[in-house]
Amino acid sequence: MSTMITSIDPQSPAERAGIRVGEQLLHINGHKIVDVLDYRFFGYDPDPFVELQQPNGHRRTVHVPKAEGMDLGLNFETYLMDKARSCANHCIFCFVDQMPPGMRKSLYFKDDDARLSFLMGNYLTLTNLSPREVQRIIDLRISPINVSVHTTDPKLRSELLCNKRAGEAIDTIRRFAENHITMNCQIVSCPGINDGAALRKTLHDLGQCIPLSTALRLCPWV
Fold it and tell me: Which of 55, 87, 201, 212 gives 110 a disulfide partner, CB atoms 3.0 to 4.6 angstroms apart?
C-alpha cells in the first residue's frame, strides 16, 4: 500500500489546511488509512482531524474544515492506494484466458478486488478475501458488491474455478447476507456442469439469502 500524498487538488480543503505533497496519510479521525476504501469512508465526515507523517519522520495532526461528503482533495500514487488484487482462479470458462495473443497488456490482467467491485462495478469471486477484509466490508457497510457465484455447491465451485478455496466463499456470501450487505450475483451457466439440478440448487440457496439481504439480485449468463 502507499498512502504517500503525490499531489493535492487546487483550492481543496487539504490545500487550504496546509497539507503538503510528500507527507504520508496515516489516520483520519483516529482511523488507520490502509487504502482508498478507508480514505473515502472516513474522509466523508465533516471537519476531520488528519494525522500525517512528514518526510523527516515527524508526525503532525491537521484539522481540515470541510462539508460532509466533500473530498479532501488528496491524490496518491495509484487510485486504490495499493496494487489491484489479481484473480487466483482458473475458471474453465474465463474469457480473459481465452483472449488471443498480441493484445495490450492490460487486457490480460484478471482482477478480483472487492474495492473495484464497490467503486467500479467489477465482479469478484470472494476467493482471495482475508478474514480482515470480509469484516471490513461488513463494518464499513461496503454495499453493493458484485459477486460471481456460478454455483453454491462448494465442491462444484472449487472445480469450476480450479481453486480449492472457492467453496469457502459460499459461507462468505451467507455472512454478507446476514449483515445486510447488498450483493448483485451472477451465474455463468455451463451446459452439463452447473446447469440443471446444480442451477436449481444455486437459485434456491441464493433465494434463502433474500430475506436477509433484501436487495440481493441475480444476473444469469449462459
Answer: 87
In this predicted structure, the answer to whether residue 214 has a pLDDT above a threshold of 50 is no
Q: What pLDDT does residue 107 have?
A: 87
Of 48, 217, 213, 218, nearest to 138 by C-alpha is 213
**Grid coordinates standing for 91?**
475458471
Q: Are residues 172 and 188 in contact, defined by beta-carbon separation less than 8 angstroms?
A: no
Burial degree of 121 (CB within 10 A; 0-12, 13-18, 19+) = exposed
CA dihedral 8, 14, 19, 24 (to 10 degrees): -70
CA-CA distances (angstroms) from residue 79 to 22, 74, 135, 185?
A: 16, 11, 22, 25
pTM: 0.80
Q: What is the 3-state secondary structure (H, E, C) of 13-60?
A: HHHHHCCCCCCEEEEECCEECCCHHHHHHHCCCCCCEEEEECCCCCEE
Q: What is the 3-state secondary structure of 82-144?
A: CCCCECCCCCCCCCCCCCCCCCCHHHHCCECCHHHHHHHCCEECCCCCCHHHHHHHHHCCCCC
Look at 216 and 129; give whichever has higher pLDDT.
129
